[in-house]
Structures are given as structure tokens and as C-alpha cells.
Amino acid sequence: MEIPPKSPDGSEKSPQSKELLSSNTASTLCISSRSESVWTSASRSKWDIYHKPVIVVSVGAAVFLFGIVITSLSCIQTKNKNVYKMCGPAFLSLGLMLLVCGLVWIPIIRKKQKQRQKSKFLQTLKSFFFNR
After folding, report:
1. How far, in Å, are 6, 12 from residue 3 at the CA level?
2. Is 115 part of any domain?
């Protein structure tokens, strides 16, 4: 006869507690999934939707402005001129890249939101007609 393995702390669990554990784990996995469920209809605020691209755009703009300042210092300063000439364009390009990525990200999110709304509308229509 096979003996069930003991838990690491030495206590044995009943079959009922094992069922509770597995159902609890399954519900935790559903809650922690990154994809939005069709069943949740809680509306999100604009900040919840657009906070990542807004942060990327603002950081990109700040780095781009910093690059402008560093590049202009290479024209004004005679000391460390080579350092300013090397670092300025690097910050300019990095800031511009982040700025453009954030600005492109926003219309992508808008398009996904519209598709999600259409999908929810079609699902409600489908459930209305086919669940009669």
C-alpha cells in the first residue's frame, strides 16, 4: 500500500484541505493573470489605461531637453568641449526615441480599446440572441 507523502512541516492534510488548496490556487492564478477577462466589466480610468505611455513620453521629453542643453554647452564652454559633443547627441537621440515610442504607443492603446469595446458589444448581442 502506498503512503501519501508528508508535507515539509510534517503535518498531514486531509483530502478536503487538498481540494481547497487546489481551488484556491486556481482562483489565484485567474486573478493574477495579466489578460483582461471578458467577465470583468469594471471600467478603468484614463490614467490606468494611459499611464505607461505618458511616463515614457515625459521621460523622453526630459532626456531630449537635457540633450539640447548638453549640446548647447558644447558651443558655449571651451572646457570639456569634446565630452559635451559626445554626450549631447546621445541624449538627444535617446530622448527622441523614447518620445516617439510613447507617442506611437498612445494610438495603439486607443485602437485596442475600441476593439475591446466592439468585442464586448458583439458578445452581449450573441448572448442575447443565442441564450433564448
Report:
1. 9, 11
2. no
Cell numbers at residue 90, please? 546621445
The verdict on residue 131 lying in a domain is no
Q: Which three cell numbers stand for residue 75?
A: 558651443
What distance, in Å, lies between the first and last C-alpha atoms of the chain?
53
Is residue 55 situated within a structural domain?
A: no
- Tally of structural domains, the chain: 1
What does the block give as the cell for 131? 441564450
Closest by Cα among 40, 55, 4, 1 to 120: 40
Domain span at residue 85?
Answer: 81-109
Is residue 86 in some structural domain? Answer: yes
Q: pLDDT of 90-116, one tens digit each?
A: 999 999 999 999 999 999 999 998 888
Cα–Cα distance measured from residue 108 to residue 115, given in angstroms and rounded to the nearest whole number: 11
- What the block records as the C-alpha cell of 107 is 494610438
pTM beyond 0.90: the answer is: no
